[in-house]
From TrEMBL:
It comes from the Bacteria. Keywords: ATP-binding, Membrane, Nucleotide-binding, Transmembrane, Transmembrane helix. This is FtsK domain-containing protein. ATP binds at G208, G209, T210, G211, S212, G213, K214, T215. The lineage of its organism: Bacteria, Bacillati, Bacillota, Bacilli, Lactobacillales. InterPro entries: FtsK/SpoIIIE/SftA (IPR050206), FtsK_dom (IPR002543), P-loop_NTPase (IPR027417). Coiled coil: none annotated. GO terms for molecular function: ATP binding; DNA binding.
Amino acid sequence: MIGFFYDLKNKREQNPIVISLNERSNYLDYPLYIRIITSIFIVFIIFFFTFAVVSDNLYILLFDVIVSLFLIKKIIYFKKSLEDFCYKQFYFEILLLQFLEDIKDLELSFVYQLEEDGTVLHIVANKGVTNIEKHENLEKGLSSVLNLPFKKKTVGNSVINYFFEIQKPKRLVVKAKEKLEFTDKMDIDLGYGIVYNPVRTPHVLIGGGTGSGKTIFISFFLIELMKRHSTVYICDPKNSDLGNLSHYLDDHVAVTPNNIARVTRLAVEEMKKRYSIMNDPMNFKYGSNFVDHGFNSLWLIFDEMGAFQASATDKEGKKIVDEVMSNIKHIILLGRQAGCFILVAAQQMSASSALSTDLRDNLGLRIALGNNSPDGLRMIFNTHMPASLPDVSVKGSGLIYVESTGKMEAEYWEAPFVDTTSFNFIEELLKYKTADKYGLE
Ligand SMILES: Nc1ncnc2c1ncn2[C@@H]1O[C@H](COP(=O)(O)OP(=O)(O)OP(=O)(O)O)[C@@H](O)[C@H]1O
């Protein structure tokens, strides 16, 4: 029994912890051992008490009662500490073994590894044995037994990796604030532990069907840009929600093909102007970017790019589309250092889109909101497509991938929650626009 507790202590020091059904007793028998230890104590107290009664001496009896009460308190504490040690320290191991025990005909020698880093529990099932299919689709069962949200699964040559979230990341909640929140920081908090910085990973791609939350997210993003004194141009060929911003952002909003061509041209001209200033020998600083030269960021937000491309029916229309797509290509490939960025949103990314896979891969932040077909997701994430797709029934949820963060796959994310009944987007926009115009901070 002592060996059992000693083994457990040693196991705790292992990371990852390796378990198999072969050693089920190492984990699952702890309640039995705790019962045996407490029973020994209780027998001892009874014996002690009986001795006091038989001795017929009031002082011994009194002494006995005091010692017994003290011992009972100690036993309760000892039992609780042991339970905590075994159950709390090995909570996931015990639940996993109990779960595996219920799977019929599982080989006893099949080895599982558990590793946790405070936010993610990583369970590795080692392949290379018979009946491997029994271990391949355990995400739902494990998620319900461990009571942890399933994050992702990867299947390698010899292992199956299951990842569960230990701490559910927090969704950002957007609230109107009394005080303006102008900032010089380029980092934009997107909630769920994701921070986006356009200087590190320029440009944004958002895909998602109707009602998936694109407009709400773009509106949130626009306010974040206003907080950073950005110059924003908006192209909305469908003249929907964003197009209506022309009442507030004047000629920075374009809905007709000619106007869309005009604003993309303005963005490219500004980018070229910045480069000529930055590369002027008088101003040249090696390795510098737009921030070092005192420029703000410039964003071109292009909603429904697919609709715009499809709108070109005649020769003149096609010429305009070609010019716009060429401007966009310029911004994607050259914009970063000059601080000229683009956000492209589309209901569907089609393979025939002028935004080729190569160009799409240059968009550093990629988001797919709501339900998307596997083909649609592949268009957005390409090689970063996750092996299994999470449930995205929460409004404004989907998948996100930020380039250069070391992560291999897109992951589940909930866009900042905007309570449209209390957060007036237009009011916020005007607050920042007016303050920016009059230099109020
Ligand atoms: N981040 C969010 N926070 C709160 N509610 C959201 C969020 N995202 C989506 N919703 C809810 O979903 C509805 C549809 O969102 P939204 O209008 O942004 O979708 P969309 O993708 O722009 O659709 P469409 O292409 O038809 O305009 C919103 O009115 C809102 O009720």
